[in-house]
Amino acid sequence: MKPFVLRIALLALSIIGISLLHYFTPLHLHYLHDIFQRFYYLPIILAALWFGFRGGLACSLMVSIVYAPHILFQWGGTLALDMEKYLEIMLYNIVGGVTGLLAQRERERSIELQKTAKGLEESYHKLQAQSERTIAIEEQLRRAEKLSTLGEMAAVLAHEIRNPLGSIRGTAEILRDDYRPGDPKHEFIEIQIKETERLNRVVEEFLRMARPQPAEMGRCSLREELETIVTLTANDAKVREIELVLEPVADDAVIKGDGEKLRQAFLNIVINALQATPAGGSVTIGVESPLPSAEGEVVYEIRFRDSGPGIDKEILARIFEPFFTTKPDGTGLGLAITKKIIEGHGGTLEVESEDGKGTAVVTRLPKSE
Ligand SMILES: Nc1ncnc2c1ncn2[C@@H]1O[C@H](COP(=O)(O)OP(=O)(O)OP(=O)(O)O)[C@@H](O)[C@H]1O
Ligand SMILES: [Mg+2]
What is the pLDDT of residue 57? Predict the structure, then answer.
């Protein structure tokens, strides 16, 4: 039964009960009637508390209607003799009305307070979400700063190495002319020249990478790129006894990008997945059909899932930091570079992982027109 009906029934029963006591108690037991008279306040006050002003008044009127015939017909109804009983009826109505009014005000105030509290709570949540976003953005900025200063420092270093290298090579070439071919010293100098050349190539290559190059954006077929990645890593997967699966990719899944860079990014992700997965596990690569992104572009979502141990929260917060690694021989640059490449393509890179449940690296890249 609903609480409303239950309450009405309780009130009605108590009014009927008290009235029956009045009607069936002999009049000479007037002290009992005096007590019963006061019992009526119970349902009146309850009605006022439960249903407010109207409820209180309705109940007191009800009591008045039920009680009046008892005064009129059983007591005689003389105004002078039964004055006290008529006054009691008046009091019923005053108590019903006033208590109802007060209860109603109290209730309205508490509703008002609840509303304010709810509003405050909402503002608090909004504020919290905003500050979390700000913290995340700051974190991103710090990471970007770290990467760019590191890159600049390394570029300066490489540049400084290149100049003395040129001198070493130049002087070695001069010295070489002093010895005839076949002379052991001639060969040593040859080695010196060859090794400086090699060092120079490494430095040049590094400088080429560090310099912000305009990426060579072209149309990249996701199927072809991912097939290349699978071919490159298939042997590693086999040795590790991991099932490497490329789910079917549509031929028209084409994105705008620099194939070489994207391959480097995908390779980093797959190698991480293979390194994390124990023998007998699996690494699955799949491409979702194109989805509209928040910015209104159409993007392809490429998911790399592994059945490894997952990443716990504290580590997850740091995996994009340059030089952060949990591997004895890792450099910790893989994901930092990968993120830079993906973001350089207008895409996003996210890692979904729960300790013990494997990892999914999700990249979204804009579709090529
Ligand atoms: N699929 C994965 N499962 C579990 N942990 C991962 C996964 N991918 C990345 N990680 C964690 O993120 C860290 C950073 O990865 P990142 O690729 O940047 O560096 P690395 O793999 O340690 O070093 P490098 O890539 O130079 O060999 C890893 O050390 C590892 O702890
Ligand atoms: Mg790595």
Answer: 95
